[in-house]
UniProtKB/TrEMBL annotation, chains A, B:
Name of the protein this chain belongs to: Alpha/beta hydrolase
One MF annotation (Gene Ontology) recorded for this entry: hydrolase activity
InterPro entries from the UniProt entry: AB_hydrolase_fold
The UniProt record lists the keyword Hydrolase: yes
Keywords, alphabetical: Hydrolase
Amino acid sequence: MQFTSEQRLDDGVLEREFTLGEIPGILWTPASAPAPLILLGHPPLGLRKMYPRLVARARHSAADGFATATIELPGSGDRPRLPAAEQALADLRRAMEAGEPVSDEIIDALILPLVDKAVPEWQAALDALLSLPEIGGPVGYSGGVISIGIRLAVVEPRISAAGLFAGSFVPRAMFEEARQVTIPLHVLLQWDDEGNDRQVALDLFDAFGSKEKTLHANMGGHTGVPQFAGDDAAQFFTRHLK
Amino acid sequence: MQFTSEQRLDDGVLEREFTLGEIPGILWTPASAPAPLILLGHPPLGLRKMYPRLVARARHSAADGFATATIELPGSGDRPRLPAAEQALADLRRAMEAGEPVSDEIIDALILPLVDKAVPEWQAALDALLSLPEIGGPVGYSGGVISIGIRLAVVEPRISAAGLFAGSFVPRAMFEEARQVTIPLHVLLQWDDEGNDRQVALDLFDAFGSKEKTLHANMGGHTGVPQFAGDDAAQFFTRHLK
């Protein structure tokens, strides 16, 4: 892990860009150290595009005493494209524009290779981040592609709690993995999410094996998550990581 | 409204029993006055039996700066029985013990007369409570028989926000009333509630006309609401009544 830039934000949060091999990432740390860590998931739109929302989440978490970090997803930003996923995305768009149902094959081709490639990268990032003296204590995962969160919750024992956003296409195979999740979960659902089948989201919530799992459903579309929903998620992490 | 007893609880909350005509009730006020008011709904099991849970909710609310009050429901406690509701309750128990579905007729007979009789009583209590100098500001309604909460939210303009518990039988007619609700709602659902059909609860949540409505679903049965769910509800009221 190599730090490539460093700036102090006006609220005292230290923001550092880094590379992990060829993968770019960003680490935010609060003044109080060592701090527990929340990994910030995000949709595969590229870190640069996602930066405003990521830094807002990072500041909010820092105010609660958490360090946060994120890395570029495979195929996003300046990283090499994933040709199979690009093809699946084109198929998905075509299906949605034609008003056709999105087939399981398209969803599998879009999501499963992304999960297979991304999860070991997040684990490698975790290795590097946890070796820093300013990071300590338990780790949470928050948001982003829900299937990446599910796989991480199953395979990565250092993650103690996860806040998931029921807002992306979920391969059927992930339902089986969801049954194996046992860590506390906080699941956010936008009730009228145009890109998300509500019943699938409810079925997925039902499938999670965790004894403590909470569903917070709010009104509005995919990007309409109300401010107070973020506050509730913050309290979930404070309860489990502090 | 006649106060019949008064005691100061160890956390400084003033607890006063009162009668409103023939209806007994309890008022809890925090040290800071005037305070906004939350009406504490409860199942029709009698105030005496419900007292431990009610006083816990009252103390929690007082710590957040709220006054709380509750009244005995028609047919409960020492109040005269409602013969039609008693018959419906016997029919309900017989159906449940026999493992039969509970018919719409039984649910209507159990709930609708209770709502019709209880709601004007809560409104009369509100008249009396809002005339006290130690009560001021907006009013919330919390918990109890959800159909009473729905009707109150529709007919009582002084109630600005409601926290409802999706945990009781709901007559089909109440779905129509739910569509007329416009105040902010915080709906609690116990995912594995043995006495509550999950799909009916989700459909009811969907039916509410409110632009701001949030569903919080937690694991466990009817009485297994986790502590943090109470904290989330408290924040909802703080957001809307302060």
